[in-house]
Every structure is written in structure tokens, then in C-alpha cells.
Amino acid sequence: MKKYDYIIAGGGLAGLSLAFYINANPALQFKKILIVDKSHKNENDRTWCFWADEPTAFDEIIINQWEEAHFF
Q: Nearest 5°: phi and psi at 29?
């Protein structure tokens, strides 16, 4: 008997985004997901950054945004 349909290694941006999109897909939303992360998460210690040309599922939680970035 399987306990989980998907096991995601890491609770960072990639892992949590993947879990979000799996859950948002009607064909997958009832699948069991296990997220394994080596760190205890007792506080918000993450800064998520991403580039997008179109609206995303995370637009509601954006605190800051920039039209351009320069790397040196």
C-alpha cells in the first residue's frame, strides 16, 4: 500500500510551488504529497524571487516588484 503519490525533496520555492500546482490541478488535487525538508520551519525565513512576463498564481502575495534588474 502506498502512502504518498508524490514525495517532494525540499520545502523551498521550487518544492512548494510544485506542491501548489499539483494541488491546483483538478486531476491531481486529491493526491497525497509528502514534502521532506531537513530544516525545521518555525518562522518565515524565505525570500522568494521569480521573473514572469504574465500573471502568476503568486501575484497576491507579492510585496515588492521591479521592472528590471542589473547584474554586475
A: -65, -15
